[in-house]
Amino acid sequence: MKSRAAVAFEPGKPLQVVEIDVAPPRKGEVLIKITHTGVCHTDAFTLSGDDPEGVFPAVLGHEGGGIVVEVGEGVTSVKPGDHVIPLYTAECGQCKFCKSGKTNLCSSVRATQGKGLMPDGTTRFSYNGQPIYHYMGTSTFSEYTVVAEVSVAKINPAAPLEKVCLFGCGVTTGIGAVHNTAKVKEGDTVAVFGLGGIGLAVIQGAAQAKAGRIIGIDLNPGKFELARKMGATDTVNPKDHDKPIQEVIVEMTDGGVDFSFECIGNVNVMRAALECCHKGWGESVIIGVAGAGQEICTRPFQLVTGRVWRGSAFGGVKGRSQLPGMVEQSMRGEIDLDPYITHNLPLERINEAFDLMHEGKSIRTVIHY
Ligand code: NAD
Ligand code: AHE
Ligand code: ZN
Fold it and tell me: Quick one: residue 49, left, alpha or beta (phi over 0 = left, psi -120 to 50 = alpha)?
């Protein structure tokens, strides 16, 4: 079938909206009509060429919502008409990871997913007869996409897809990192580095956990008002200080925070986020994605003296079992999605969503098909 799609033909170049060909779903696969998709910084990261797993040409996008159109042989968990969120972190329930009870990182389709291929090693997308790669197992920048059955979360059809698509990445990642990875408790002090979609979701999660103090840190003061509305008790701009930001936070908090979250993808900030943690127990969670060749460093003494460095992917959330419940929470008003959606655009203007992100003017732009 034909599908309108925003294709990343080359790294560092704008996406091109063209009509691609989408082949039918094969065994264990699902064809989805994407109705809406958010644009996450990770899409920009991969488009920039910094992602070691970036392959081109590809259909990017991983924060979508849509409706099942057709299922391949053997698919039983969804049927045409079901409303779904594609998952870049699959959940097969069968692999060593899924059975461990220790992680949401499912291994069932991850190897082929990282190569831009479907689990059988081929692609369902083509343009002028040439193959186009998939991305993160989701490729939501196409009106029609094919994903593995294990990469589909079925949700309440009454949920507004133009909002709950954000559970495909940003909101789930931030809120999940607070509850599943850090396990923030009432009264804890939290520092959040980077106040984009991910950082704001961390703030929303920390507020749910009744953290005592939530310090939002960003170089762009334009991000502070919304951060405060969503629960930040303090906002700090590193540019306003002439000493390292970790020293500023340690002084503000009588020795450091209980938890910090890096939501930028900057290895220097990752160090600062670790070093602003309290001696003896402070934990820092890396959420930001850093480019090829980048490495983190600190003095081992920081860990010897009790600070903990950890990371979080998709907020530690198991998508097929847990996303439907998070969608229900948003429908009950327990998770507010409206503040994240600063812009709405048609697919034809998707490059403006990237411009708005790079200019620091948006939190999330939702693309409407
Ligand atoms: P974003 O661009 O919307 O937000 C980033 C924020 O960081 C911006 O407000 C920017 O002003 C701020 N910033 C940049 N440099 C800074 C610095 N040196 N000090 C303080 N603030 C600074 O991005 P986003 O969509 O919120 O994504 C954030 C990061 O999280 C990205 O690296 C993205 O790839 C990553 N991510 C990871 C996961 C995961 O599962 N681990 C999921 C989603 C996104
Ligand atoms: N491809 C990159 C790593 C990218 C990465 O870390 N992705 C996050 C999700 S970002 C969503 O916006 C993630 O979940 N990682 C775990 C996984 O299995 O990919 C690289 O460095 O190769
Ligand atoms: Zn993302």
Answer: left
The alpha helices in 209-266, defined as continuous H runs, are 224-229, 245-252
pLDDT (tens digit per residue) in 57-73: 999 999 999 999 999 99
Q: How far is CA 44 from CA 101, 283, 322, in A?
A: 32, 28, 27
Q: How confident is the model at residue 220 (pLDDT cuts 50, 70, 90)?
A: very high
Q: What is the mean pLDDT of the chain?
A: 98
> In a mutational test of the pocket of ligand 2, which residue from 46, 87, 88 has the highest number of ligand atoms less than 8 Å from its CB?
88
Q: In this structure, are 307 and 320 located in the same domain?
A: no
- Helix-helix angle 245-252:267-275, to 10 degrees: 30
This complex has an ipTM of 0.99
**53 Cβ inside 6 Å of ligand 2:** yes
Ligand 1 atom closest to the CA of 197, numbered from 1? 26
Q: Which residue in the list 37, 42, 123, 173 is annotated as catalytic?
A: 42
pLDDT digits (tens, 9 = 90+) for 301-329: 999 999 999 999 999 999 999 999 999 99
Q: Domain ends where: 311, 330, 348?
A: 311
Q: Which residues, in sequence order, are CB contacts of 254 under 8 Å at separation 6+?
A: none
- Distance in Å from the first CA to the final CA of the chain: 16
In this structure, the residue with its CA closest to atom 14 of ligand 2 is 313
Number of domains in the chain: 2
CA distances from 38 to 22, 34, 344, 354, 356 (A): 21, 11, 9, 11, 13
pLDDT confidence band for 90 (50 / 70 / 90): very high
Domain residue limits at 242: 183-311
Q: How far apart are CA 21 and CA 3, in angstroms?
A: 6
Rounded to two decimals, what is the model's pTM? Answer: 0.98
Q: What is the mean pLDDT of residues 282-296?
A: 97
